[in-house]
Specification:
Elements (H helix, E strand, L loop, with lengths): L5 E4 L19 E4 L5 H11 L11 H4 L6 E4 L6 E4 L16 H12 L42 E2 L3 H9 E2 L2 H4 L2 E2 L70 E3 L8 E5 L16 E4 L12 E3 L10 E4 L19 E4 L5 H11 L11 H4 L6 E4 L6 E4 L16 H12 L46 H9 E2 L2 H4 L2 E2 L68 E5 L7 E4 L7 H4 L5 E3 L8 E2 L3 E2 L1
């Protein structure tokens, strides 16, 4: 399952915009950071529209080259939907030709847990909204989702919720709050050229008549006019919402509208200057679909639960070391992370301790290096907020990179201290598993966490711990134990085919081709990472995933001249870095777009 990336909207009981009377919201809520994308909507269709009873899909989603992104194949009862290439990958662009009812059914599906099945009261027809036998007028949001017995989690934003997320800024008027004219944190008219890379631009038609994507004055019906969500990556609202102006209109629930109307704000790729301002409002029939109409969703604000990181037992104590390298012998039982630490997990860590970020836990390249980007930082020092970004899809479950060993140690200190929220001090990140007051090249594990008076719960794996979990198999050599050359239970170089069912695959370079693109040209401006666990049939003996490829992984070696030793290769590695015979030593502050980590525990 993959849910829309959401951002928090706080500052409750804010004043309304004196110009329009809109924007006051007396509670916390979440709104999707981006418009719902073609890929997200395609996943929805494949779940519930094998027989499309309520026309969630319509032909222009394939045939209108201005916006096309979804192909439907097969016969009713067995429809299959896929993202198409329309002047480039379409999945990251917003879905269009959807109206209020399609948005409501998508919210029902999310609120019901993304079930698979026909369109009925358990999937799309009830949940957030009761749409049973209702095709003509808008219905109120359910107080209780009848399928869960709880308030529905996802819903169409109200007009005030959308307006606040787009135009409000708490820091205006000496921190009393106020509103911008445009959803770009500006009172100045935005530009529209993506290549300008400025902080006030969006996809619309400028006063001189230029379209955003083409930068041409004439509409060409054979050309796609949608930009990727978040493509204007330096332009966002105060809360971090992208594309509040331009790209596509979104339906909202306006309490003062008639029963079959929805209010739209913000403009679209077809909009001109006058449509972008907060003072412009468009009322649209709720069943109207257009090439410039998409949607966002809201979510009830819920407290983020503490991280739960799955750890696997590694036994077979006193195993022999690998005769090729001398590594891998561990004479005690321990646990190690099933997966590499992900972007979502690290984002939660940042939001707990890095609102000032005294020790540079965040690197700006986590947002700007599009080969691996996954985290956006918003706000000013002391009020930083972090959120997962859409980088050719949801980045949440990809490995976090640009991590130094000091970053990783602060993460495990935070875990060992109970995941506290506060400044970066000895009680949160600076002590626990490791005492970071120690300025030596090598920082030893604490035997006792001074904050809990007990042994620390989590560590960075030693090189031997990581090596054993990646390469050792006690059943080899007639159950005497032995080591594979690659971290895929194999002595044969892994391939990199995501869609195969092979037991020997990795996100790496194979036959000169990169994994994501399957081409020999490295697309540094597009995502190159796979979700952790993507290669479902490639598992090390103890059950860990992705020890080879995707990301080099940080380990500690206290006999090495450097404390940090990285192993396993990464997304741009070919054969040698994937091998057990290869390692990379780094300084304590080294970080790059190839370096991440997993954790261990005794």
């Amino acid at each position: 399952m993959s849910y829309p990336i959401m951002i928090n909207i706080g500052n409750i009981n804010n004043n309304p915009d004196p110009t329009t009377g809109l924007g006051k919201v007396s509670y916390k809520y979440n709104i999707s950071k981006y418009h719902i994308t073609i890929l997200e909507y395609t996943n929805f269709l494949n779940a519930v529209a094998k027989t499309d009873l309520h026309s969630l899909y319509i032909e222009p989603m394939t045939t209108s080259l201005l916006i096309a992104g979804i192909l439907r194949e097969g016969e009713t009862g067995n429809y299959v939907y896929s993202v198409i290439d329309n002047d480039g990958y379409s999945g990251n662009r917003p879905i269009t030709y959807v109206a209020w009812f399609e948005a409501a059914r998508y919210c029902n599906w999310l609120s019901n847990g993304q079930p698979i099945g026909e369109q009925n009261e358990k999937t799309t027809e009830n949940g957030a909204y009761n749409l049973i036998n209702n095709e003509g007028s808008k219905v109120k949001k359910n107080i209780i989702n009848p399928n869960t017995g709880m308030p529905p989690l996802y819903y169409i934003p109200t007009e005030n919720e959308w307006y606040k997320a787009a135009y409000y800024d708490k820091s205006l008027n000496n921190n009393k709050g106020g509103y911008y004219l445009y959803a770009t944190k500006s009172n100045e008219l935005p530009g529209n050229n993506i290549k300008d890379n400025d902080n006030n631009s969006c996809n619309y038609i400028t006063p001189n008549g230029k379209y955003g994507v083409t930068q041409d004055y004439i509409l060409d019906t054979s050309v796609n006019y949608l930009s990727d969500v978040g493509a204007y990556h330096n332009t966002k609202s105060y809360y971090g919402m992208f594309d509040g102006n331009g790209l596509v209109w979104v339906p909202t629930d306006a309490p003062d509208d008639s029963f079959n109307m929805s209010s739209l704000h913000g403009g679209a790729w077809t909009a001109v200057k006058g449509y972008l301002g907060s003072n412009f409002k468009l009322n649209m029939y709720i069943y109207t679909r257009n090439s410039n109409g998409g949607f966002r969703v809201c979510k009830i604000h819920t407290k983020t639960p503490k991280l739960s990181i799955e750890l696997l037992k590694v036994g077979n104590i006193n195993n022999i070391p690998d005769p090729l390298t001398g590594y891998g012998k561990v004479d005690y039982k321990y646990k190690i992370g099933k997966y590499i630490i992900t972007i979502a997990q690290y984002t939660q860590f940042l939001n707990n301790v890095a609102f000032e970020d005294k020790y540079n836990l965040y690197d700006e390249q986590m947002a700007t290096d599009l080969a691996i980007a996954g985290i956006d930082r918003n706000g000013i020092n002391g009020r930083y907020k972090y959120s997962v970004i859409n980088n050719m899809g949801d980045s949440s479950n990809r490995p976090i990179l640009y991590i130094s060993i000091l970053n990783a140690m602060r993460f495990v200190n935070w875990l060992s201290n109970g995941q506290p929220c506060g400044k970066q001090t000895k009680y949160t990140t600076e002590n626990g598993a490791y005492d970071l007051k120690i300025q030596n090249i090598k920082i030893p594990r604490n035997k006792i966490n001074p904050n809990t008076k007990k042994p620390p719960l989590y560590f960075i794996p030693t090189e031997n711990e990581w090596y054993k979990a990646a390469y050792y198999d006690p059943t080899l050599n007639n159950n005497m134990g032995g080591y594979y050359l690659y971290a895929s239970n194999s002595n044969t170089l892994p391939n990199n085919y995501i869609d195969g069912d092979t037991k020997n695959s990795a996100n790496s370079v194979y036959n000169t081709n990169y994994c994501i693109s399957q081409k020999p040209i490295n697309t540094y401006y597009k995502n190159n990472l796979t979700d952790v666990g993507t290669f479902t049939n490639t598992i090390c003996y103890y059950g860990t995933y992705d020890n080879g490829g995707d990301s080099y992984e940080i380990t500690t070696n206290y006999s090495n001249n450097f404390m940090c030793v990285a192993r396993g290769g990464f997304w741009a590695s070919a054969d040698l870095p994937l091998r057990s015979t290869t390692s990379q030593s780094n300084t304590n502050d080294y970080r790059d777009n190839n370096l991440g980590f997993r954790i261990s525990s005794l």
